[in-house]
Amino acid sequence: MVTLTLDRLSARYGRRQILADISTPPLHGGQVVALLGPNAAGKSTLFRRILGLLEGEGEVRITGTRSERPIAYMPQDNGATAVLTVYEAVLLARMQGRRLKVADADLGEVDKALAELGIDTLAGRDIGNLSGGQRQLVGAAQALVQSPDILLLDEPTSALDLHRQISLLSILHRLAQERNMLIAALHDLGHALRFADQALVIESGRLVDCGPCEQVVTPQMLRHTFQVEARIEPCSQGRPQLIVEAAI
Amino acid sequence: MAAAPSRAAAFAPAAADDANLYRRLVLRRQLILAALALALFASLCVDLALGPARFGLDQVIAALFTPGSVEDSLRVILWQIRMPVALMALVVGASLSIAGAQMQTILSNPLASPFTLGISAGASFGAALALAFGVTLVPALVDYAIPLNAFIMAMLTALAIHFLSMRRGVTIETIVLLGIAMVFIFNSLMALIQFFASQQAVSAVVFWTMGSLTKATWPKLGIAFAVLAVVVPLLARHGWALTAMRLGDAKAESLGVKPRALRLEVLIMVSLLAAIAVSFVGTIGFVGLVGPHIARLLLGEDQRFFLPGSALCGALMLSVGSVLSKVIIPGTIIPIGIITSLVGIPFFLFLILNHKKNAW
Lengths: 248, 360
Known about the structure:
Chain A has helices at about 45-50, 85-95, 105-115, 130-145, 160-180, 190-195, 215, 220-225, and strands at about 5, 10-15, 15-20, 25-30, 30-35, 60-65, 70-75, 150-155, 180-185, 200-205, 205-210, 230-235, 240-245.
């Protein structure tokens, strides 16, 4: 099973230190990790650092994978002017770094990714004609189709309506378990409580807490890091629910 | 027709149609490419048949496939005089169109082309230096003084753009603006040359900037073709990465592409392609701009189809242009640059005003 460990990771843009000394215990596959923190805390930067797109001290250790590119990353934006169909855009993500020739197995993976996310009916549409939410689902399919062991998602639900937010997160949660995949995602606190197993909290480029979600997301943390007065109560189905009273 | 068995069906029966729909799309694109190639061959034959002495298409085809069976005069005219010109149209058209296609791709700008980035203007300036004042940048090769001057200035322009674009904070939008600045710089330098040059030299410069295929010879054709033959496989090798560039830098990066490095490498390759083409035949505008747009409309932007499609569309445009340049006024060959501009500009306006979904 894949394991991701961050060891004293740092990153800087020019002289500005963005991340400092971020260390985590081994994060195992099969679960969803929420990356939490206020705006400009360095969450996206941490993803870019893990991917190796940024230089810095420290080490990203990945064990238990046989893939050459074990990490797939879904950034927030997805080209809206390209003249490509949804199917082509997803195939493209699959074929990166491979030969020009497309095998049947690759088409199979594209079909699978589209079907998993419920966008197989969009396959023939031009990505330029999609809504923001549909494009976000295509982005998720582009990440999934790479058959990653670790999936990093940068606000995967920001453009989706509530129904699709819940269904995408449920799908991802299920896939993490089915494929022993480690999914790390930036998303809002409410969803984190409901869908994430673990949570990392980042504030001003430093890791302030790390552990099981229900232990990390507490009224104290919310007051301290997010500067809101909030409580957490079980909903009618017993799931933890975030109720925000006021900003401090 | 029975659907081909696919692995997809095993785990996602509902989506198996998608793979088949995609296979059909691929087939349609292959057919479009084949049709373009066929049209290109037809245009080439017509181009060869036209000239001061008119030949029938049957004679042309006979001379092409069984040169031994036709009269000497026909064979000489066709193979020694018309063939280099007709083939040069194909090679130059393909080169300019590929250059434009990749510039549009890596700069994410539908207006990028060798023409709008100042590479053609740089070439014109180099040629004008030789034509007006006899300045040769490479003195050893007098026969090739004009194309060499043009080539050197075109490459210097491209390198200047590369160099400036390496500076911190220069975005891809800035690169296009840099190109436009280059066009203005060279236009004013050209005006300066024309002001000081003799009457005769001015008309030579003007004629060169109109673009003409008639200067083509077998050796020049060989050089232009060799560059094309080297650059195209190098571009094809980056096929998936180049297509990914159209999704934006962040997305491309997330897929493992290194956008800055790829952009520089491709800019150098296509500048070479455009500089060679322009230096042999003069300024031929709009092929590099319109060719890729037609290919995009027909084939989309997957480079496996877009790259050959752009080459074929550019070659076809210039070959048809060559035919038109001979038939519009019988007995006169109108400079091909004028034809491509006259045909290209309305098409260009159509592209801008008709904002269809596939037209960028």
